[in-house]
Write a structure and sequence with these properties.
The structure is a homodimer of 410-residue chains.
Chain A: E1 2-7, H1 11-22, H2 24-31, E2 35-41, E3 55-56, H3 59-63, E4 68-73, H4 81-90, E5 94-97, H5 100-116, E6 121-122, H6 133-140, E7 146-152, H7 155-167, H8 171-180, H9 189-192, H10 195-209, E8 219-220, H11 228-236, E9 239-250, E10 253-264, E11 276-283, E12 287-294, H12 298-314, E13 338-346, H13 349-360, E14 364-366, E15 374-378, E16 382-383, H14 384-391, E17 397-403
Parallel strand pairs in A: 1-2, 1-4, 2-3, 4-5, 5-6, 8-10, 10-17
Antiparallel strand pairs in A: 7-9, 7-11, 9-10, 11-12, 13-15, 13-16, 13-17, 14-15
Helix pairs in contact in A: 1-12, 2-12, 4-5, 5-10, 7-8
Organism (chains A, B): Ruminococcus turbiniformis
Domain Aspartate/homoserine dehydrogenase NAD-binding (chains A, B): 8-124
Keywords (chains A, B): Amino-acid biosynthesis, Methionine biosynthesis, NADP, Oxidoreductase, Threonine biosynthesis
């Protein structure tokens, strides 16, 4: 029997209990042993819930029990999760977590503690919920140099962007609807400002580079400025707008960014709608691949956590190598990255085209019926730095959105 | 140093050599040791190719060399691959293969030999080329009961179906074009009759059931009867037609089938075009997930083979468990499986609707402009057996294509 403890009996924690209860037979068969939940740590009590008899309020009970081999951390947040996880690893227990904030900030250190003790620290559920992208990077795409990872990593904002695209709705409208449906929180900042996606792409960037990528270094722009009018232009051009989190290799550097982007129909992420997440990967041998699934939700997330428990139970005294050193990776400054830019501009296209082209070079003009007194254009490829300098020299820019072309150099 | 041998220096074999040459530094870092190709087995010589010095013509040199720890089998076909692989395993060497015919027929036995000797027999590249679906099933989706796997598993036929859809071309036309482009072989039977997809879904069915699924038991229908007119109906209904290979769970049974199917835009496989492959998976906790990528091609396939070599080099004395017993699984007979059917029928819809509905119950009539003297309809859900009986009672059926509804019971 492999005894485990679950720290946190919230949405994901209760999901973990449910997955082990529902699929215990196949899970035990795969482990080759019986997984038993011995403790559930929570500040609260759950009278009437069968879990109540396993509830403990003191983490030391878990840490000091040598029978506990694996600890599931699904409390969220940095503290006390960090202290608890570190103490569990130091006490010889493997840890599985869904906590992206913890992994983005302390992943390298916790992995190193696990490695030194022949334990495992796994975090499949921290990125993409039920999508097995982390294990794919660690165990499947091992013959490749990963040149790019671009993902739709936040379900809330993807739901909102999909609504705006299909229903022509306004940002405020879809945010309210998402909140009413429980897809967005009352304080939606972490989602709509891109902070959640930023921590996730920081984790993926660390994994593909093998070094520490600090999320604070990643340029992050949310969806709060995306309007109904932007989406009308996107439709006119046969495109859509998604919040993308992306990490691309330039020699030994990475460039990472979280921002809304225009995608055309040829891009594999174009048709990823609603609360679904997807991760596009380009390997130098593999070519293009994509992983798609439920990025959040109680059971998909819990399924990923329990898959980590299964792996840890099969490798109780053996570290599954993850290359992620503490050494910090410097990202390529955003000013030096190149792409095409879509710009919405006040005025008439006929009147202003010469002025625009004098500055930006040849552009494709886009007009949308119903939107008078403005027009849009897509620039040639240039660096963010160049774009910024040019944009400062012309008046009347209403909005700029980056164009994510598949296969284009960033 | 981990010495390996490559059996077969054809397309995939030379790809394996190229991947190890190009990405040797990261591959060795991931293994924690140096991978060295010591022998390449081929009947031919390759004068002038740097590989020539490693070429051997006699498999016994590989089998009798205790330095060889891992053997890559990329010859294809059942014999002599089966005999060679079995002898390698019995001589204490792990084996990685891309050979779907070998795995579909002898997978259970070869896995059992590997398990008994603490070796590994891995075959990621045998299904979906560069798409890491097999490792996902074995190591990632381990907390789930997999209820369905439906895939576009053959790039040649998907290329042809995409051409027919986008260009309104005829079957014979696109087959010739695919042959001219090198996407289809001069003798295209294995692809267009569905035999290739059938072996692949047999492998996936065995993995999700843990028992032997014989490919001979799987109902298999190719794309040779799909016409330009069928595709016109599909378009009229907002759908497309794809060759799907599918395996669905009914209690302890599986139902597996390879056949062209109508898909609507909501299905994740709808937008998988050209030579790309994709695998849709539904788990009882995970919900829906999809894996997409290059299903064939020299480097994507070689990348998957080398990822298996990496895994085997990291587990030289430890079997990575794969649940696939020799015990045969009886599939649910196709007659007992339920779905909706699209039927094309001679005559006028107005004249024949009553006759059709008297037999099939209420149907949705579809007319396509330009196709006079015929109409189409989609039935309610019924078993294949019921459909067959009804279809025998009415004259003028031009073609029947199954409708693959996501989330529908099969």
């Amino acid at each position: 029997m492999v005894n485990i403890a679950v720290m946190g009996y919230g949405t994901v924690g209760s999901g973990v209990v449910e997955v082990i209860r529902a699929n215990g037979d196949i899970i035990n068969q795969r482990v080759g042993d019986e997984i038993n939940i011995k403790y559930v740590l929570d500040l609260r009590d759950f009278p009437g819930d069968p879990i109540q008899e396993k509830i403990v309020h003191d983490v030391d009970i878990i840490i000091n029990d040598p029978e506990i081999r694996i600890v599931v951390e699904v409390m969220g947040g940095i503290e006390p999760a960090y202290t608890f996880v570190k103490r569990c690893l130091e006490a010889g227990k493997s840890v599985a977590t869904s906590n992206k904030a913890l992994v983005a900030k302390h992943g390298a250190e916790l992995l190193s503690i696990a490695r030194d003790r022949n334990l495992n620290f796994l975090f499949e559920a921290s990125v993409g919920g039920g999508i097995p992208i982390i294990r794919a990077l660690n165990s499947s795409l091992t013959a490749d140099r990963i040149e790019e990872i671009t993902g739709i990593l936040n379900g809330t904002t993807n739901y909102m962007m999909s609504k705006m695209f299909y229903e022509g709705a306004d940002y405020d409208e879809v945010l309210k609807e998402a909140q009413d449906n429980g897809y967005a929180e009352r304080n939606p900042e972490a989602d709509v400002e891109g902070y959640d996606a930023c921590r996730k792409i920081a984790i993926l960037s660390s994994l593909i580079s093998g070094q520490q990528v600090d999320f604070e270094d990643i340029y992050t722009e949310g969806i709060t400025k995306i309007t109904r009018e932007d989406m009308m232009y996107a439709k006119e051009m046969g495109m859509t707008i998604k919040l993308l989190a992306s990490s691309k290799r330039h020699g030994s550097h990475l460039h990472a960014i979280v921002a809304p982007a225009l995608l055309n129909k040829e891009h594999p992420l174009y048709s990823v709608d609603d609360v679904f997440n997807a991760v596009f990967v380009h390997g130098n041998m593999l070519g293009d691949a994509m992983f798609y699934g439920s990025g959040a939700g109680k059971l998909p997330t819990a399924s990923a956590v329990v898959a980590d428990v299964v792996d840890e139970a099969k490798h109780l005294h053996r570290n599954i190598m993850t290359m992620w050193k503490n050494e910090k990776l410097e990202l390529l400054p955003i000013e030096d990255t190149s792409k095409r830019f879509f710009v919405r501009m006040e005025g008439g296209a006929d009147a202003r085209k010469a002025e625009v082209e004098a500055l930006f070079g040849p552009v494709e003009i886009v007009r949308v019926s119903g939107l008078d007194g403005e027009f849009g254009f897509i620039t040639e490829v240039m660096t963010e730095g160049e774009y910024g300098k040019k944009a400062a020299q012309i008046s009347g820019i209403l909005h700029m959105i980056r164009f994510e072309e598949q296969g284009a150099e960033a």
